[in-house]
Amino acid sequence: MQTEVIILRCPECETEVGHTVYHNGFRAAATSIGPSIIECPQCAFQVETGQKEWAQFGLVRKSWYVISRLFWLFVASIFVCGGFAALFNRLALDQGWIVKEQSNLLMLKTYIIATLVLSCLFIRRSWKEIHDSLQRYHAVDPK
Ligand SMILES: [Zn+2]
């Protein structure tokens, strides 16, 4: 996968105010949360970012956000947790903690526990992202 970072500049004075990440040409901002307008630190110009705060997301965008996060969790669970389970299983066999017949069960248990831990981290991170966004949104524009 190709990732490209586009620097967002103030149209008035060219000062760098932020950046947008593209994955294979798809704008990650479609699911990323952030202020829709950033004030230029140099000239105070209101720069549009193309992002939105969670409270401004419609139902489709909210669903898409959840789906994309679940997708990444799924991908990460296969590679990270699967890899970890395989390594741990190898170690347990080498160290003689288990015999070969117990190998599949240990692999499954390790994978499930690792996936649960990873899920908690993912949920916490997304929750914090939404929480921070709501705080920003209500601090700027109390409704
Ligand atoms: Zn500026």
What does this structure look like?
This protein is of the alpha+beta class and 143 residues long. It folds into two domains: 1-52; 57-143. Helix content is 52%, strand content 16%. It is built from two helices and five strands. Strand 1 and strand 2 (16-23) form a beta hairpin. The longest helix has 38 residues, at 103-140. The mean pLDDT is 87. Residues 10, 12-13, 15, 40, 42-43, 45 line the site of zinc ion.
The SSE order reads: EEEEEHH
Helical residues, percent: 40-55%
Shape call = elongated
Termini separation comes to: 40 Å
Total domains, how many?
2
**How much strand?**
15-25%
- Quick check: average pLDDT? 87
The count of helical stretches stands at 2
What ligands does this structure carry?
Answer: zinc ion
Can you list the strand order of the major beta sheet?
1-2-3
- Summarize the biggest pleated sheet: 3 strands, antiparallel
Structural class: alpha+beta
Low-confidence stretches: none
Taking all Cα atoms into account, the compactness measure Rg is 21 Å
Per DSSP E runs of 2 or more residues, the count of β-strands stands at 5
